[in-house]
Amino acid sequence: MKVMFVCAGGMSTAMTAKKLEEVSKKNGVEMNVKAFGTTNYLEELENDNYDVLLVAPQIRHRFDVIKESAEKFDDLTVEKIPPNMYAPMEPIVKKLFNFIMEKTNK
User: Fold this and answer.
1) Could you tell me the residue range of the domain that residue 24 belongs to?
2) Cα–Cα distance between 100 and 62 in angstroms, integer?
3) For the whole prediction, is pTM greater than 0.85?
4) By the number of CB atoms within 10 A of the CB, which of 33, 36, 42, 57 ranks highest?
5) Listing from the earlier edge strand, what are the strands of the sheet with 2-7?
6) Is 7 one of the annotated active-site residues of the chain?
7) Which positions bear Phosphocysteine (predicted)?
């Protein structure tokens, strides 16, 4: 499963993305997680196929704009990351993993 995090600059999500890959692997799910900023996520979506786009809590005010821009990509699940699931600690990332699995019906 390919997961894209979108945040202000793409940097703050790096640790959480890495931890999410580790947690998903422990749970038998292969996730490729990449982080992008609001200025370059759309270009990446056009160049690669993603299953899930997650909007970081610090830019949740831009969720509607991001979701609308991503509507043209078939089968892309777009969600806000709940603030209580946004930290690079394993118990918290496990909640995020479960959230993704629920939203994608996996």
Assistant:
1) 2-104
2) 20
3) yes
4) 33
5) 32-37, 2-7, 52-55, 77-80
6) yes
7) 7
What's the CA gap between 94 and 54, in Å, rounded?
Answer: 15
d(CA 41, CA 98): 24
What CATH number corresponds to the domain at position 39? Answer: 3.40.50.2300
| Side chain identity at residue 53, one-letter code | L
Residue 59: closest CA among 28, 81, 34, 32: 81
Structural domains counted in the chain:
1
Alpha carbon 25 to its chain centroid, in Å, reads: 16
- Residue-wise pLDDT for 24-35, tens only, equals 999 999 999 999
Residue 105 pLDDT: 85
DSSP string, 9-59: SSSTTHHHHHHHHHHHHHTT---EEEEEETTTHHHHHHHS--SEEEE-GGG
